[in-house]
Structure prediction request, 106 residues.
Amino acid sequence: MGDLKSKVDRVWDAFWSGGISNPLEVIEQITYLLFIRCLDEIQTLKDDQAQRTGKPDPAPLFPEDQQDLRWHNFKAKQPEKVPRGSPHAHHVVIHGCHPGCRFTTE
Prediction:
């Protein structure tokens, strides 16, 4: 239990230092990040299948010009100082990923 609490505290501290202190906004940002990760896991399965069959993926979730948005690439990026009030992770999902991710009205 103590290990889990310290992990949660580290996540909370990361959001706090990035300018997000509202608990609802923290949950929203975590949701966007989990969504990006889920999409990357699906794409990884599709990539593995394409490699096994020798046939290219006819409908990749992440085209070549969006590979930097995949979770395994996105998580390796250095965190940038994000000004308070900016859209954070949801901006990456809404404006960066494929059209199926654009589920909000802006």
